[in-house]
Amino acid sequence: MYHTIAALTPDYIVYIYSDSTREQLNTLKGIIKTESESIKFEPTNALKIKDEVEKLAQRFRGDEVTVNISGGLKSWAYW
After folding, report:
1. pTM of the model as a whole
2. For residue 35, is it left (φ>0), alpha (ψ between -120 and 50) or beta?
């Protein structure tokens, strides 16, 4: 994920993580100094994931958005 972020040079990053990926999140945030926020998701609650993704989509409506779904469970990628 680091290489993707470094190549894209985003203005802002929204990290989505779960308890099991918190360590990777902390590592990335220690290396990448781009302004960011972190949102914890429950990886097995598809309806909650859908609701949270819809909220994010509304917040960033009109912005150029790149999504990297290379990690996590497949239910995260569905919505």
Report:
1. 0.79
2. beta
